[in-house]
Amino acid sequence: MRRSFKFLLRPTAKQSAALTQCLEDHRQLYNAALEHRRTSYGKAGVTIRYGDQSAELKEIRKEDPDGQGRWSAGSQQQTLRRLDKAFAAFFRRAKARQKAGYPRFKGRGWFDTVQWPAVKNGARWDSRPHDPVTRLYLLGIGHVRVHQHRRVSGTVKTISVKREGARWFVVLSCDDVPAEPLPATGAVAGIDMGVASLATTSDGEHIDNRRRLAASADRLAAAQRDLARRKRGSKRRREAVARVAALHAKVRRQRLDSAHKAALALVRAYGVIVHEDLRITNMTRAASGTIEFPGRNVAQKAGLNRSILDAGWGVFLTILSHKAESAGRELVAVDPRNTSRTCSRCGHCAKENRVTQAAFRCAACGHAAHADVNAAKNILRAGLALRDAAQAA
Q: Where are the domains of the chain?
């Protein structure tokens, strides 16, 4: 299986400046390649592809030895592949009559990742194996210290360096990562995603929703007000932008940490986990509408959307999927329709069954339960039926 490992880099001041310049040169290469494609097709009707631009790299590096020539040709090829993938996605969406989204030029704050092939092409993981501190070698930058907090397994295929605010990270994409199966438990559970609780199991356990964004809302609001008062292009504005970015990065790290811990607890406890197949993008779509057809309850819908996104359902389910695969657990996704309105005891489905957000009382049989626990039991039943049908087929 393929897996990624992310570690914090601790570059020196000189290395940090070199990393920044490396990002800038790759950004300029990306933008120049995009302009080349646009101009060739717009003026001559000629389609430029990755192979054409990759073949020109040798001449570009020769003409600019102190700029593009400083960096690994392999990393520059990866940047050109990144542009090629953007065009492939554009044409695929256009063919499917979706919102296409033509590739855009990258501004200074919108290009923060450079990738290297891991095999003899300007980057080497654990470049000094006899050094007690793990180091990453990058051509033109040197041996950068890595804060390696866990073991890397599998074969390293690509090495990516990413800037997040004032921090630098390395991301290793590894193939042939061995699975780490956990002992069988024989237990099964359905989970209902929510806002009051991140998730509720069919056993009645509630996983706390820490509301990370809400907890940092006051500090974020103050930082953004400070940013709004700064003059564009000034040093103080750049500092204000960095403060806002650092706060958002902290919220993201806290959310990821909570999701990892909650997913690991579920994977350790249950052999089969059933969850809702949620369409989060559709669920968090704005309700503002148009001038001709304005939306209703716009403020309430905006608050609900913010709460859903703050809970991080998508992040949690993605992490749960990866951990379940590695641990040898079975994950089943079911249609969430009517799971919160159906009685888990008699099967009666009606809107009146949901008395309040937290209370469920069946209008037919009188069964009373916590609404999320009742929904989780329905989700579990639907998942086990789906699993049995698949095994019988």
A: 3-175, 188-216+246-392
